[in-house]
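Reopening: structure tokens for the L-homoserine complex, inputs below.
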Amino acid sequence: MDNRRIIVKIPASTANLGPGFDTLGMALSLYAWIDMSIADEETEIELLGNGMESIPRDKSNLLYKVAQLVFKEAGLPEQELNIAMYSDIPLTRGLGSSASAIVGALVAANALAGFPLTEQQLFTIATRLEGHPDNVGASLFGGIIVAAWDGDRVDHIRLEPPAGIDMLVAIPDFHLATEKARHALPQQYSKQDAVYNISHSSLLVAALASGRIDLIRYAMKDRVHEPYRAALIPGMSQILRDAGEHGAISTALSGAGPTLLALIESDSQRKDELERFLLDTLGNEGVEAKSVWLKPCLTGPELQWLDGPTGEISLMEWIKGEVKA
Ligand code: HSE
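Re-run output (same inputs, fresh job):
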């Protein structure tokens, strides 16, 4: 085991990108940091940032459990750990906070153990834990990922996000558990809807892979999850229908929601108009929301080792200047 301290910076993600339900994901320029080292004595867990109050700090903590999975897989005994985490990624809003936590804990523990597991092994463990590969894949590989999971094996291709496109996310001020948003979906779909999604998701991937940005607005349309989840998010249907009239290239529900994602050209003169439209539409439905401008994040986790004099510095001290809060 490495006795140094590792800090891993992990991007948030937006899943589905419209029609690519449980398949497509994109990493975003919003981050969480996990600080991990082998403890001299007992495990200590510190969680910083909004919404962390109710998360356990004992060995039932997800970060601790995920790290132990890596040690077990590598044939190592359970380790007492010092863990600290700070996250700018809001919880249960559809921006992949749990995926970032899982990926961060896997990558940090793998580093402490001397990198026994491959990225593919980490991806498989992360997908199994999350139940779908889209968010964890984006956080692990950066950029846009196209992934297929058959319950056993997970494959992916990473695509470079198109240049010159910015993302606006409108984050409603309420939580929506992925579990609940998945329960809103039907058990069966008509052949028309299945064909609709296969064709739009395929077209979206082909458009992204070949630089046909002009096709994104036609391809980013979904009939598998967005129509059913719209009932859980007042204002969503109107935003998906009308944001194009306010400068957006396209819009989608981010993951399981409730965050809404809008794409717009980076040099568009209509960014303020689009932002107002999203916030006013939600506001008119009584939904308070916060808007954040983001870019695709092109890389996966960034690792930094701390030892010697830097070994004593607190996580917040180390990342200040980088955090949003
Ligand atoms: N693909 C998943 C869903 C993402 O839409 O339920 C959850 O973040």
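The pocket of L-homoserine is lined by residues 15-16, 21-22, 94, 132, 134-135, 178, 181-182, 225, 255-256 (CB under 6 Å). The first helix runs from residue 62 to 73. Marking as resolved unless the reporter disagrees.
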